[in-house]
């Protein structure tokens, strides 16, 4: 919870010099939709669908998923809802999937790797449900894939979407192909962001995983928490590279890791060029208030100085001077 009282801004916000920045909510269940709207979310920037698959004995079927996704779209009729396809493995277990123990789960079979492999059936059902929901719900649906590391993975995922669209077409089922995107969560994705951005409509940076992999510091290990910090210059440089690659390829780019919800970092992130910031709903009013104070030229200057910094300490000092 925030300490300062800040008014909720239900409307979209722009910087003092008129650049619109979309501020959206991260959520995992439809129970959270109302709260997101109440905090002034412009839409949903990360719908973590794995929660739909937890606390039950078997996965949700296609119709149940259509209903859940359409409900989110109806909650934001003027907005965008970014649904992430199933992201299990690593820190995200699902009991009935019987995930094998792995020595290095964060470097193992997780995210899109499972969807293109062991969980292919679940992936197909989920994509069918998403394409059907895109035609049914009021808002705009976007779908993104987690933990992509190679162009081959992305191409395979996009091919699955094409196949499913043809199947639905042949069966005479109503569907629409949503906007498609990739999460930038691995150093590989940051380095190949130009190739990814050329193939999709948008990128979304997952800084929780990106910081963990860039810094080789597990996200849940307190002993290395000082390393798992997105203020480290290499993480900022990875973000900068992804933003530039997205914009060079006419894709929009958002951020949905914890970093996006820190009001002390809003100016830096706007300066880096992020088009959208998605966060836990409680931080939305604070971040919207920050956006309205920003001058984009000043913010770019902060970003350039942070990108030129040698250490996290230097980055902190640059940010402290601004506040
Ligand atoms: C991330 O990795 O930053 C992210 C948003 O995904 P998750 O926290 O669900 O892994
Ligand atoms: Mg992640």
UniProtKB/TrEMBL annotation:
Its main location: cytoplasm. The keyword Iron-sulfur does not apply. The active site is at 256 (proton donor). GO terms for cellular component: cytoplasm. Residues 7-295 form the PEP-utilising enzyme C-terminal domain. Its EC number is 2.7.3.9. Phosphoenolpyruvate binds at residues 48, 84, 208-209, 219. Its cofactor is Mg(2+). GO terms for molecular function: kinase activity; metal ion binding; phosphoenolpyruvate-protein phosphotransferase activity. General (non sugar-specific) component of the phosphoenolpyruvate-dependent sugar phosphotransferase system (sugar PTS). This major carbohydrate active-transport system catalyzes the phosphorylation of incoming sugar substrates concomitantly with their translocation across the cell membrane. Enzyme I transfers the phosphoryl group from phosphoenolpyruvate (PEP) to the phosphoryl carrier protein (HPr). This is Phosphoenolpyruvate-protein phosphotransferase. It comes from Natronoarchaeum mannanilyticum. The chain holds residues 240 to 562 of 562 of the full protein.
């Amino acid at each position: 919870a925030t300490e300062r009282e800040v008014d909720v801004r239900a409307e979209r916000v722009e910087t003092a010099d008129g650049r619109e920045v979309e501020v959206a909510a991260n959520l995992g269940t439809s129970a959270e939709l109302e709260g997101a709207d109440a905090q002034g979310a412009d839409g949903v920037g990360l719908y973590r669908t794995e929660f739909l698959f937890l606390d039950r004995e078997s996965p949700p079927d296609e119709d149940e998923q259509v209903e859940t996704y359409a409900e989110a779209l109806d909650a934001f009729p003027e907005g965008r809802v970014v649904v992430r396809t199933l992201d299990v493995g690593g820190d995200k277990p699902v009991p009935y999937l019987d995930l094998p123990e792995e020595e290095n789960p964060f470097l193992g079979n997780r995210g899109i790797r499972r969807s293109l492999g062991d969980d292919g059936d679940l992936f197909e059902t989920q994509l069918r449900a998403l394409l059907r929901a895109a035609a049914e719900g009021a808002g705009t649906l976007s779908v993104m894939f987690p933990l992509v590391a190679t162009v081959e993975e992305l191409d395979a995922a996009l091919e699955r979407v094409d196949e499913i669209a043809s199947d639905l077409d042949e069966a005479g089922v109503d569907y629409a192909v949503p906007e498609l995107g990739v999460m930038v969560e691995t150093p590989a994705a940051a380095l190949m962001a130009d190739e990814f951005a050329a193939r999709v409509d948008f990128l979304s940076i997952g800084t929780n995983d990106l910081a963990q992999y860039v810094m080789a510091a597990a996200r849940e290990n307190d002993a290395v928490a000082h390393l798992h910090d997105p203020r480290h210059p290499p993480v900022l440089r990875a973000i900068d590279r992804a933003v530039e690659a997205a914009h060079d390829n006419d894709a929009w780019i958002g951020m949905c890791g914890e970093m996006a919800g820190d009001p002390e970092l809003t100016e830096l992130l706007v300066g880096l060029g992020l088009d959208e910031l998605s966060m836990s709903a409680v931080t939305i009013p604070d971040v919207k208030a920050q956006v309205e104070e920003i001058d984009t030229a000043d913010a770019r200057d902060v970003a350039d100085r942070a990108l030129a910094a040698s250490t996290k300490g230097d980055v902190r000092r640059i940010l402290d001077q601004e506040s």
